[in-house]
Design a protein that fits this description.
alpha/beta; binds magnesium ion; 24% strand; binds adenosine-5'-diphosphate; Glutathione S-transferase Yfyf (Class Pi), Chain A, domain 2
Length: 363
């Protein structure tokens, strides 16, 4: 899968942009604050309809404007035009000029894998950040995942609201709560099974890739869930057991919305002992593992974005990483220091110079 061209209107610091990319390597360089991350962010938003930086969509619209348009031609087996339009009124997505009703139908179509320095949050910060990330990653691979997740979240909201009603009104029927709980369990089991599958599949690749980059093995991700190894009956009993507590706090305390994913080196928690460099290596290994899964399960190779990699890792690691990539992958690499980039990479790349919301191709 490749992005052939990109058009932007009022996206962050780009008022208008129309670029054609190399189907292999693209190198974007420029000073800090010039718009390199904004450019690759636009590709990410074109694929996933939202940014990896924060959740507010309005910040993507250029200051002082009321709408941003991102469009691009994607070549997979055939060419399609994709478009994301974000305005104060919300978001519209289109494929070949036709509006898509559901964002969840759009999301798994253009596949992008992105490395960004902010990704360290994935290891360091809260379980919610990891769940959101893993949800998005599985959604790109599995069309149904996001649909089931949306249903799960809808029922969870209803159940939490009903728990509050029950707390206020003693006469509320428990039957309705049971109906919601059963639905939550059904969707939860589907999601949990998919998460387990995904983490297993990633783990099978992750160890080998991390070893190739760093020379060290024994890395893994643990999937932590309170559904772990329980039968449906046992899961049901847990909801019954926590019902009083749930009612008191007005929310569902048991279930897969508390899942977590933990990086481990042997038996140690990665976030507690690994250096930033090691954490970056494990994140990049995770992304490369994802690329392999795309090939295996979707028979396509996602677009790879490596934002600011050169300021993050030493040259030898970067060489190891690039050596692991197949020739058929399209990459976008951004850097402030073009001089740090190996001549080999420069020679096979289309090079773009970025400055204050303008991009020029170097010839
Ligand atoms: N909504 C926006 N409207 C206008 N400019 C923006 C908007 N959001 C970010 N910017 C500008 O984009 C620039 C940062 O671009 P970025 O791509 O992060 O830089 P870098 O080249 O360092 O990756 C900053 O100058 C910032 O002011
Ligand atoms: Mg940047």
């Amino acid at each position: 899968m490749k992005i052939v061209n990109l058009k932007l209107l009022n996206f962050r610091n780009y008022d208008y942009l129309n670029l054609s990319f190399s189907l292999n390597n693209n190198l974007i360089y420029g000073k800090n604050g010039s718009g390199k991350t904004n450019l690759v962010e636009a590709i990410y938003v074109l694929a996933l309809t939202k940014s990896f930086r924060g959740s507010l969509e309005k910040v993507l619209i250029m200051n002082g404007k009321n709408l941003t348009k991102i469009s691009g031609t994607i070549k997979d087996n055939i060419y399609h035009n994709y478009q994301v339009i974000i305005s104060e009124d919300g978001k519209i997505v289109k494929i070949d000029e036709k509006k898509e009703g559901k964002i969840s139908d759009y999301i798994s179509k253009v596949n992008v894998i992105m490395f960004n320095p902010d990704d360290l949050r994935f290891i360091k910060e809260s379980p919610k950040i990891r769940r959101d990330k893993i949800n998005l990653d599985i959604s790109q691979l599995d069309n149904d995942y996001l649909k089931v997740l949306n249903l799960y979240n809808k029922i969870l909201k209803q159940r939490n609201a009903y728990l509050k009603t029950m707390y206020i009104n003693n006469n509320s029927s428990i039957d309705y709560l049971n109906i919601l709980t059963d639905k939550l369990i059904n969707y939860g089991i589907i999601l949990s099974t998919k998460r387990k599958w995904f983490i297993n599949a990633i783990n099978n690749k992750l160890k080998k890739i991390y070893e190739k980059i760093t020379g060290v093995c024994d890395i893994s991700i643990d999937y932590i869930t309170n559904f772990s190894n329980l039968t449906v009956e046992e899961i049901k009993n847990n909801y019954i057991k926590s019902y009083q507590k749930d009612m008191l706090c007005g929310k569902t305390t048991f279930g897969i919305h508390h899942d977590d994913f933990i990086f481990k080196y042997k038996c140690n928690l990665f976030k507690d002992f690994a250096s930033e460099g090691q954490q970056k290596n494990v994140i990049i290994s995770y992304k490369l593992a994802e690329i392999m899964l795309f090939k295996e399960y979707k028979n396509t190779c996602p677009i790879l974005i490596l934002d600011d990699l050169f300021s993050e890792l030493d040259n030898e690691k970067i060489k190891n990483i690039l050596n692991l990539l197949d020739d058929d992958i399209q990459t976008f690499i951004t850097t402030t220091e073009i001089d740090l980039v190996d001549n080999n990479i420069k020679n096979k790349s289309k090079i773009f110079y970025c400055s204050n919301g303008k991009i020029e191709e170097e010839v």
